[in-house]
């Protein structure tokens, strides 16, 4: 089925100037970028986004990292988009990410891991509406 997923190009990848290379991977895989903006998150916006991780030991570092520089938030649309994007990203820990994945190629650590992608269609719906109004999404 055609799905949408929320993608975030994280501060480490923006700082490395690989926004275009990452977008090319989405496009080559047949995912359409149907919404996109660059934003500098504050503690409230980043903490709210990762609210499910609030009690985890890495939460503070995660929010600190995600607010350390601009990010690119985007909506990807395509067949099986949630899983397709997770395959492109590779494992959360870049040390465990398969060769040729975004995280294997561009990420340095489990915190600075280049990209975020929704883990289910339910998360995707919630995460997309957290960042985008309906009229900001441009289906093709
Ligand atoms: P992301 O997919 O954005 O969702 C939560 C983030 O927390 C994750 O990517 C990692 O960058 C970060 N993180 C840091 N430590 C851990 C951990 N032990 N397990 C999962 N995620 C972690």
From TrEMBL:
It catalyses: a 2'-deoxyribonucleoside 5'-diphosphate + ATP = a 2'-deoxyribonucleoside 5'-triphosphate + ADP; a ribonucleoside 5'-diphosphate + ATP = a ribonucleoside 5'-triphosphate + ADP. Its EC number is 2.7.4.6. Signal peptide: none annotated. GO terms for biological process: CTP biosynthetic process; GTP biosynthetic process; UTP biosynthetic process. Its main location: cytoplasm. It is found in: Cytoplasm. CDD domains: NDPk_I. GO terms for molecular function: ATP binding; metal ion binding; nucleoside diphosphate kinase activity. Residues 2-139 form the Nucleoside diphosphate kinase-like domain. InterPro entries: NDK-like_dom (IPR034907), NDK-like_dom_sf (IPR036850), Nucleoside_diP_kinase (IPR001564). Major role in the synthesis of nucleoside triphosphates other than ATP. The ATP gamma phosphate is transferred to the NDP beta phosphate via a ping-pong mechanism, using a phosphorylated active-site intermediate. Belongs to the NDK family. Homotetramer. This is Nucleoside diphosphate kinase. The lineage of its organism: Bacteria, Pseudomonadati, Pseudomonadota, Gammaproteobacteria, Cellvibrionales. The gene is ndk.
